[in-house]
Amino acid sequence: MTVGMTEGSDRISMAARLRNNFLTGLIICAPMTITIYLTWTFIHWADSWVKPYLPDRYNPEAYLKFAVPGTGLLIAILFITLVGFLGRNLIGRSIVSYSENILNRMPLVRTVYKSTKQIFETVLKEQGNSFKKVGLIEFPRAGTWALVFVSTDAKGEIAARLNQDGEEMVAVFLAPTPVPTAGFLMFVPRSKLMLLDMSPEEGVKLLISAGLVTPEYKPSVADAMAAFQDLAVDDPVEPPKRAGRS
User: Fold this and answer.
1) Measured between alpha carbons, how far is 50 from 97 in angstroms, rounded to an integer?
2) 147 touches 206 (CB < 8 A)
3) pTM score, two decimals?
4) Which of 31, 136, 227, 239 holds its CA 20 to 30 A away from the CA of 74?
5) CB 145 within 8 A of CB 188
């Protein structure tokens, strides 16, 4: 009877080891495979957009007998960098201004161009604070908290209409789980927003993993002192009582 139990335990142990080894291998291989696949797909997508417009004299594949992946992506990066360099001098700014005047005269095109330009200027602005902070708001009801990315302070008409009580409003982006490609733009009072110390990258990881990948948290000295003060207030130490005379 003991021998049978030992053999059954060995089988269970062997099955558990195989399962653990498989899960460990999956954790190692899956992220690497997905990353390589997405990178390779993006390179081919960029090549398919650039190579058809590339003259044969500048195309390395015209001289080689094999395809060179990444040529289109490299040329696109160089071209965008060159346009940015030219756009920072006087002649380049004049050309860009003239092109913008032409686009602004087209009824449908000007709306798309202005909206797209405003989005890129806001997101790629070097000194901007867009999506550099992560916070929590009570959503969808009081007592439950949702992770949000802080966009910017409310401006324009929204600020004029919502800041009537004297409290500033903040624009936040509430992304769904596990694919944060769409979500809700919400305006909340600054006092209702709880800012976190985690970076936006850590917030995205927490969001995509549905809370499974939690970033490491090291409380600051101020937080530790505040927690100690709260503990001292909640549990005050009573002074020892002096024994009375009998």
Assistant:
1) 26
2) yes
3) 0.51
4) 31
5) no
User: Hey, which of 150-164, 172-186, 193-207 has the most confident mean pLDDT?
Assistant: 193-207
Q: What are the structure tokens assigned to 88, written together? A: 């920072």
Find residue 139's DSSP bridge partners. Answer: none
Within a 13 Å sphere around the CA of 110, how many CA atoms are in the beta-carbon half? 9
User: Which residue do the tokens 């001098």 mark?
Assistant: 89
CB distance 193 to 135 below 8 Å: yes
pLDDT band, very low/low/confident/very high, at 130 (cuts 50, 70, 90): low
pLDDT digits (tens, 9 = 90+) for 73-116: 888 888 888 888 887 777 777 888 888 888 888 888 888 888 88
34-67 pLDDT, tens digit each: 989 999 999 888 888 888 887 877 777 777 777 7
Q: Which helix (H) or strand (E) holds 201?
A: helix 200-208
Residue 242 tokens read as 């002096």
Taking a C-beta distance cutoff of 8 angstroms, is the pair 203, 134 a contact?
yes
How many C-beta neighbours within 10 Å does residue 175 have?
A: 19
* Assigned token pair, 84: 């940015």
Question: pLDDT over 70 for what percent of the chain?
Answer: 80
Contact 214, 196 (CB under 8 A): no
Among residues 181, 174, 186, 176, which one has the least CA distance to residue 210? 176
Q: Exposed/middle/buried for 113, CB within 10 Å: 0-12, 13-18, 19+? A: middle
Q: How far is CA 67 from CA 74, 122, 233, in A?
A: 14, 38, 71
- Sorted by sequence, the CB contacts under 8 Å of residue 214 that are 6+ apart come out as 206
- Cα 57 to Cα 109: distance, rounded to the nearest angstrom: 34
